[in-house]
Amino acid sequence: MDKKKVCKIPQCGAAADLKQRKIVVGSKQLRKALEKGIVECVFLAENADPALTEPVEEMCRKLHIQITWIPTMAELGRKCGIEVGAAAAAVLNS
Q: What is the C-alpha separation between 1 and 18, in angstroms, rounded?
């Protein structure tokens, strides 16, 4: 399966909108939010360690949550409004 595909869904908006949305950043926090059922959509960095992204990707598949792939961790971190890279982020239900 090609992980480099970009999936966008209207209710999530573009990744550029993450700073204005209620989000969680980081694979550990994202997995907790997925378990609570409060995730609207997920953003994963293509260059992140698969040990971090694969468990999140699997949970998203099971829960039918859309994933948008961002090219780099640095880009995902910037889109989330933080100064370090991020492997994973999610928009939470309002």
A: 26
- Compute the half-sphere exposure of residue 63: CA atoms within 13 Å on the CB side of its CA: 20
**Is 60:35 a contact under the CB 8 Å cutoff?**
no
The 10s digit of each residue's pLDDT in 83-94 is: 999 999 999 986
The structure's pTM equals: 0.81
Provide CB contacts within 8 A for 62, sequence distance 6+. none
For residue 45, give the nearest of 90, 12, 9 by alpha carbon: 90
Q: What is the pLDDT of residues 30-79, one digit of tens each?
A: 999 999 999 999 999 999 999 999 999 999 999 999 999 999 999 999 99
SS3 61: helix
Q: How far apart are CA 65 and CA 92, in angstroms?
A: 12
